[in-house]
Amino acid sequence: xxxxxxxxxxTDTRHESFLLTRRxxxxxxxxxxLGAALxxxxxxxxxxxxxxxMPPRLIRIGANENPYGIxxxxxxxxxxxxxxxxxxxxxxxxxxTETLAKFHDLPVDWIALSPGSGDVLRAVTMxxxxxxxxxxxxxxxxxxxxxxxxxxxxxxxxxxxxxxGQLDLKSMAAQAAGAGLMYxxxxxxxxxxxxxxxxxxxFVAQVRKVNADAYVLVxxxxxxxxxxxxxxxxxxxxxxxxxxxxxxxxSKIHGMAGLRVxxxxxxxxxxxxxxxxxxxxxxxxxxxxxxxxxxxDPENMKKQKQLNRDTRAVTRRAFEKAGFTVLxxxxxxxxxxxxxxxxxxxxxxRQAGVLIARPFPPLDTYARITIGTAEEMQKxxxxxxxxxxxxxxxxxxxxxxxxxxxxxxEMPGYPACC
Length: 418
Ligand SMILES: Cc1ncc(COP(=O)(O)O)c(C=O)c1O
Description:
It is a single chain. The protein is of the alpha/beta class. The chain folds into 2 domains: about 75-295, Type I PLP-dependent aspartate aminotransferase-like (Major domain) (Aspartate Aminotransferase, domain 2); about 300-415, Aspartate Aminotransferase, domain 1, CATH 3.90.1150. The protein has 15 helices and 12 strands. The chain has helices at about 5-20, 20-30, 40-50, 70-80, 90-105, 115-130, 145-150, 170-175, 195-210, 270-275, 285-295, 300-320, 340-350, 375-385, 395-410; strands at about 60, 110-115, 135-140, 155-160, 180-185, 215-220, 245-250, 260-265, 325, 335, 355, 365-370. A 7-stranded mixed β-sheet has the order 2-8-7-6-5-3-4, sandwiched between helices. A 3-stranded antiparallel β-sheet has the order 9-10-12. A two-stranded parallel sheet has the order 1-11. Helix 5 packs parallel to helix 11 (about 285-295). The radius of gyration is 21 Å and the shape is globular. Bound molecules: pyridoxal-5'-phosphate.
């Protein structure tokens, strides 16, 4: 079957950015640069050097990845553990679980590992929604739970975020009667906004007034990047409420999106129910080793947070100075009102060598831009701004419909996008 033009260029891009030649990998190990350097970049540079006809590399600021790669301790752990890749990683999974339990000050049976937090979202949604038990979420928010709910035939009630990008928790709680699952993404992807710990506690109290059975899933994928002192993990609530689940990931501050590690935090009774759908034994030796080492490297986490904070502030200022509204963000991306159709803008950016995120209806005139390295943002920002110099035109109804369709195609069968 012939692939459509859009699909083939998407595949090329991924291939181009991700493919790690054996030679490049070997050289990274030999030089001890793995992790300290950005190894996919090394690989792409090596490929480019070997093939001058290859088009210049794209700047990837569309998938909320950590542009600095895994930290030095995690990289060293990968290097050391590759030689035990012939063994099943039973003990290593226990070690990581213990590390995480200690970090969250909880017993080990409150933690369930998974290959990425996308799998936690999938398991939770599959387990607790059904055609008779709807999902309540936001619009826009991370799409995975709504996607899964749609696949299982569960109705989805998506409540539009407030004008500042915050979740409208009051209106979401008003949809709780009869719900199977309430999804709270905090910070919210794609808006970047947070809701306070007190607001989440109040939300749960409101939900419980009308629905004692609904599960509440609080997705804290970006929590490690938050500065706002009013923010707090919902793990503080789970001791009093068996039906709250928190999901976390190593894909963001730990820079391990390609290694696939995430986890669910919940009461053991809830973990037992979830176990039916959560593939917790599927994490590789190297991923477990890296995750454990990264948890024990708080200096790296501090450094990553600072780098993100600084570059985000510079990027925000550049867009604001040019007259564009940027939503408040506590995450590794910003949401800019570009005052024009975001799908067209995304395509124009791609043509100009910069990959930004897909559209997030109903915010059709907003572009989500991931914070890359300072150097990447220095290169990308003038390009992104130059493409905003033409006069804006509003998103037509047909363009909005096309955005929804394109979104469907962009993540075929794989809800854990970014
Ligand atoms: C809010 C949110 N939750 C979950 C995920 C899934 O992440 P992963 O499966 O890499 O842990 C993402 C990915 O970007 C996300 O943005």
